[in-house]
Amino acid sequence: MSRRAFAAAFILTLLVVLASPAAAEAMGKPNVAALQVALRARGLYHGTIDGISGPATHAAVRRFQRRANLGVDGVVGPQTRRALGRYARHRFGERMLRQGKTGWDVAALQFSLAWHGFPSGRFDGGFGPRTDAALRRFQRFAHLGVDGVAGPATYRALRRPPPRSPLSFQLPVRAAIGDRFGPRANMFHAGIDLTAWRGALVRAGRAGRVTFAGWNSGGYGYLVTIRHGHGVRTMYAHLSKILVTRGQRVAGSARVGRVGATGHAFGPHLHFEVRVRGAAVNPLPDLR
3-state class of 100 per DSSP? Predict the structure, then answer.
């Protein structure tokens, strides 16, 4: 494909993505996500933990009901919940949660924290150290007491819409959008992936100051982070080469690196992430 044809295809793809309702990636329901976690643990649900009660979730519920010798109606009523055992004893928000707890409500908490910008790894219904750390970061973000306990104030804050960026950005690399912000399998993808070729130029989404430029051992590989003001940072991950230094001021569209596949990456692409006071937010609605 010629560069002109590639550019035309890229622009068309971007317009379709940004115009679609899915660009905003509506948050699913935490209690549905918790149900999907339970069904996945029993080998009955193989889809994404997305909190959306679609055909795959209904089919998995029916398989569970058939296995448990219940009436097969695809509805999670009292009998189905009892058949799920101790895991389903508490719905989201019914009790205080802290490290060491397990169950339906913990899975729902993990899902809700992820959508509010604080993923904690796998959605598994176990309140371990990573969930504790994510909860404390969220409490700090929401100006709550930071105690690692999910109680009424935390639940109220999690009922608010997920945060958004107060700033807009230009696309950092001319490429089609691959994985988007949101659930991916039984985890959460905190940014968007742009599937450019290895060595493609990566540009700053807007003007700012470089706060990190180097190797990240947490899976991002070669990473550049830029602070833009208003509590907003952008992150450019899996780079093959870094073209800026820490402390450098950069203009919007300035060259910051080249696309690679360093860190935890399967093939060359740019992972682009936007964070507002530490919370990962969906970049797509704010791209211009």
Answer: coil
CA atoms within 13 Å, Cβ hemisphere of 271: 24
The CB density around residue 31, as the number of other CB atoms within 10 Å, is: 20
The pLDDT value given to residue 276: 98
Q: What is the mean pLDDT of residues 253-279?
A: 97
| Cβ atoms within 10 Å, residue 66 | 12
Give the span between the Cα atoms of 203 and 169, in whole angstroms: 11
Look-up of token digits 């450098």: 248
- pLDDT digit string, tens, across residues 63-93: 999 999 999 999 999 999 999 999 999 999 9
Q: What pLDDT score does 25 carry?
A: 60
Which among 159, 186, 161 has a CA at the least distance from the CA of 41?
186
User: What are the φ and ψ backbone dihedral angles of 165, each rounded to 5 degrees?
Assistant: -80, 135
Last residue of a domain, one of 128, 158, 188: 158
Which candidate, 49, 47, 83, 41, places its Cα nearest to that of 66? Answer: 83
130 in the same domain as 236: no
CATH of the domain at 265: 2.70.70.10
| Nearest Cα residue to 263 out of 210, 214, 228 | 214
Indicate the DSSP class of residue 230: T
Query: Is the pLDDT assigned to residue 120 strictly greater than 50?
Result: yes
Positive/negative CA dihedral, 196, 280, 158, 30: positive
Reported in sequence order, the residue ranges of the chain that DSSP labels E, i.e. its strands, are 182-184, 187-189, 192-194, 201-203, 208-216, 221-229, 232-242, 249-250, 255-259, 270-276, 279-281
Domain membership of residue 118 (yes or no) is: yes
Report the pLDDT averaged over residues 98-116: 98
Q: Tell which residue, 4, 21, 25, 8, has the closest CA to residue 192.
A: 25
Phi, psi dihedral angles at 105 (to 5 degrees): -65, -30
- Give CA–CA dist 29/195, Å, rounded: 30
